[in-house]
Specification:
Blueprint lengths: L1 H8 L4 H15 L3 H33 L6 H50 L2 H6 L2 H14 L1 H27 L1 H7 L2 H39 L1 H6 L3 H29 L1 H23 L6 H43 L20 E8 L8 E8 L4 E5 L6 H8 L7 E6 L2 E2 L5 H7 E4 L8 E2 H6 L7 H10 L3 H4 L9 E2 L8 H13 L5 E5 L7 H15 L3 E5 L11 E6 L2 E6 L1 H7 L2 H8 L6
Parallel strand pairs: 3-10, 3-11, 6-9, 9-10
Antiparallel strand pairs: 1-2, 1-4, 4-5, 7-8, 11-12
Helix pairs in contact: 1-9, 2-13, 3-4, 3-7, 3-13, 4-6, 6-13, 7-8, 7-13, 9-11, 9-13, 11-12, 12-13, 17-19, 19-20, 21-22
Length: 594
């Protein structure tokens, strides 16, 4: 929360915004022709905006004041004006279309690169960043960057419009046009003042909105505790304070926009017209002044002022896009990559022997979790890891699965350093079953084969039968094609875990890793799962983290971990006879005497 607060509370400097734009420019390059076409159309629209008043000026000065203006003349000027207006409409369409499509392509490319980059980062990055924040950056922030391109387009449109309008005014009456330039410095000062004020207020609004969302999330997620401890009044008061603070910030923005947008620009525009009419009136005392000329000059003056209001309205959202860009670029700049294998890695896993040799590992170098850990799991053996929370069980799995890089020591698979084995080989020959089973949208078959079309339907059925998942699958209306909704919401925890087993076993792994695979399973389903696990472990090297010690009594070796160190090891009977830490853990679970 504090990080998000600081980034919104302090508006970015011009230098920082320039740096952001430089980082975004590489994404523009592949679609430069879209923007080139859009800029060409912007220039064409600006020229047309000069031509239209000139057509009216010519008609008023040379034809409208004549007593007998022919129908041919009226139709000619009407047709010319309409034709140029159609050309303007086409140019505006192309301008908006090309710029919009180009901006969308950039957004899509940026989001895709962000997605790919996220999947290249290591687990440590996801430990340090909330999934909700990352999701917001992937969706809202990449979309908010459009505000930057929108302001660029408005600036280009404004530049072309003001330039061509001034040239036209100068060509119409160069003296009055030069006098009109006195307003430019005043307008620039107004824009700069509005930019500084609005971005500060807008940052405050975003900060208050972030606090409001946090308070809402706390209230909704903790509703049971709030009602149980009768905290409704306190939460209501706290929410009221944050809500009022947000409202006050919004009112400040409304006041600022009400004063400095339309009223201010309209004031300058009205003052400009008054001065133009006064100056033309002075000249009319000594020379004949055509009405069409005055009309054209006033039209150019309007064209000169129109873009300023739109640009100022976009300055505050531009801050939103700038901050969003910082958040996105921070992800792309992060190099907390997943552990890398050796460039010439060609090793193969054939038997499944696992050796930890003096392995030290920690999620930070300053705080090691595993300390000089050594053990060997021979092919076909089951090694169980037990211990209190924080003892290093999951850390052992994380190091073995290469989710994290270990700091020192060596992990060998079939006598080969783990870094010399390609990641694809590790993932294919090592099957991991987690405590929580995640299901994807699709059907049962696609979730078992994990969208790998090289796995046949028959292999899917054999895997389901192997772990006894077929018992409930074949009772479903769609059987193996039964739809799976979000995270398998229509299946029980036990059914999802059996599907998870089938998903793992269908790849025929040499090494099986069980991370508290039965922790959330009811007693009735556990019998099925234990039978499935017994079959899965056969002829495979298995590393099992055990929550229920009764599930690993038949393990070939049990390692009791405490603060990353093996304090006891042996079979179930040996450890029970020792009456040490394992014995105490077993008794705590109410198993009685052995």
């Amino acid at each position: 929360m504090s990080q998000e607060k600081s980034i919104w509370a302090n508006p970015l400097t011009i230098k920082e915004q320039v740096q952001i734009i430089k980082k975004l420019l590489p994404f523009v390059k592949p679609y430069k022709w879209y923007f080139t076409g859009a800029i060409t159309c912007i220039g064409l629209v600006s020229v047309i905006n000069v031509l239209l008043p000139r057509i009216i000026q010519n008609f008023m000065n040379h034809h409208l004041n004549q007593a007998k203006t022919t129908w041919q003349t009226l139709i000619f000027f009407a047709a010319i004006y309409f034709g140029v207006t159609v050309l303007k409409a086409i140019s505006q369409f192309l301008q908006q279309y090309l710029y919009g499509v180009g901006s969308d392509y950039i957004e899509i490319d940026l989001r895709h690169k962000l997605y790919v980059h996220l999947h290249s980062l290591g687990m440590r990055y996801f430990d340090q960043n909330a999934s909700g924040s990352l999701l917001s950056r992937m969706t809202n922030d990449t979309q908010a960057i459009f505000q930057i391109w929108q302001l660029f387009m408005l600036i280009l449109m404004g530049f072309f419009a003001m330039l061509t309008a001034f040239i036209a005014m100068f060509a119409t009456n160069h003296k009055i046009a030069i006098i009109m330039l006195i307003f430019v410095p005043i307008l620039l000062l107004a824009i700069m003042y509005y930019q500084r004020l609005s971005t500060r207020i807008y940052g405050s609004i975003r900060e208050k909105l972030s606090q409001l969302n946090a308070k809402l999330a706390e209230s909704i997620n903790g509703i049971k505790v709030i009602q149980n401890f009768r905290q409704e009044m306190r939460m209501e008061k706290e929410f009221g304070v944050v809500n009022d603070s947000y409202r006050a910030a919004r009112v400040r923005m409304i006041k600022t926009e009400s004063l400095l947008l339309n009223p201010l620009i309209d004031l300058f525009y009205g003052l400009g017209i008054a001065i133009v009419l006064l100056l033309f009136g002075v000249e009319a005392q000594t020379t004949v002044m055509a009405a069409g000329t005055i009309y054209a000059f006033v039209s150019y003056l309007e064209t000169f002022y129109n873009p300023i209001n739109e640009i100022m309205m976009q300055l505050a959202p531009f801050q939103d896009g700038s901050v969003a860009s910082v958040r996105v670029m921070n992800i792309l700049a992060d190099t907390e990559y997943a552990p890398q294998q050796a460039k010439d890695a060609q090793g193969k896993i054939t038997a499944g022997k696992i050796e930890f040799k003096h392995v030290t590992f920690g999620y930070t170098k300053e705080q090691p979790i595993l300390k000089d850990l050594s053990f060997t799991a021979y092919p076909g053996q089951t090694i169980a890891l037990v211990g209190h929370t924080g003892s290093g069980k999951s850390s052992t799995i994380n190091a073995l699965m290469r989710f994290y890089e270990f700091q020192s020591g060596e992990i060998l698979l079939d006598g080969q350093p783990i870094r010399t084995i390609p990641m694809s080989e590790l993932r294919q020959k090592m099957g991991l079953v987690l405590q929580e089973s995640f299901m994807f949208y699709g059907d049962i078959t696609s979730n078992i084969r994990m969208f790998n079309e090289t796995i046949s339907d028959e292999e899917v059925r054999q895997a389901a039968e192997f772990v006894q998942a077929n018992r409930f699958i074949e009772k479903l209306p769609g059987q193996y094609h039964e739809p799976v909704t979000e995270n398998g919401a229509t299946f029980s925890a036990g059914e999802k875990q059996l599907l998870n087993f089938a998903r793992t076993i269908v790849t025929k792994p040499k090494i099986l890793i069980l991370d508290e695979a039965t922790a959330n399973i009811d007693t009735e389903t556990e019998t099925l799962i234990q039978a499935a696990l017994a079959k899965m472990r056969r002829n495979r090297t298995t590393i099992a983290i055990a929550h229920r010690l009764s599930t690993i009594q038949d393990a070939d070796l049990i390692l009791v971990l405490d603060q990353g160190v093996v304090v006891e090891q042996g079979t179930h009977r040996q450890l029970m006879a020792l009456q040490g830490q394992y014995y105490k853990l077993y008794k705590l679970q109410g198993k009685g005497s052995d």
